[in-house]
């Protein structure tokens, strides 16, 4: 995985949310959480694994809505941030945080109803192998996002500390097919780069977001969106 040493540093974990999801970045946080909730609801008693859970943004949210959640990440510092969030939200007893490798998930086959991986596939050096492992432990559903090749992100991708693997829609469809997954839904968003929102005060970022949504509704413009949210179902085995 790209940038593992940087990602696991204590100071990176401590500042991670503030750098990405404060100011106009709150709009990114809101959109990503909405994508996950739209795909997974209803959540009551659903068994969910979140891969690369980081500071627990989604893990804590899902537990708060009644899911039985496990959050897995390679960074001990990120996991500690997640545990602190869970305690503050009063859901520490409803979820579990584990340190582990997404390429070798420590769970039996079909152990979860749903596997979620947000902000993960842009770092995957072998996306097919990772998706195959997610498919193995999920009995019903896999939800993930990808950053897109034909987007503004391609302009500054080289400057990011962990880099990014950028995908075309064709590549993702091929990955799903190769892993016996059927696409239930895909949503494309954010024509403007994420970095622009993060450096913009929320009072100014909100009008930018409105403009972004307006432009995104134009025909064929969604192909230039920075991110796609994918919701896939596990195919039934052929008898």
TrEMBL record:
Domain Methyltransferase, chain residue ranges per copy: 48-139
GO molecular function, one term: methyltransferase activity
Domain of life: Archaea
Record bears the keyword Oxidoreductase: no
GO BP annotations, alphabetical order: methylation
The entry's keywords: Methyltransferase, Transferase
Keyword check for ATP-binding: no
Coiled-coil stretches noted in the UniProt entry, renumbered to this chain: none
CDD domains in UniProt: AdoMet_MTases (cd02440)
Signal peptide bounds: none
Protein name: Methyltransferase type 11
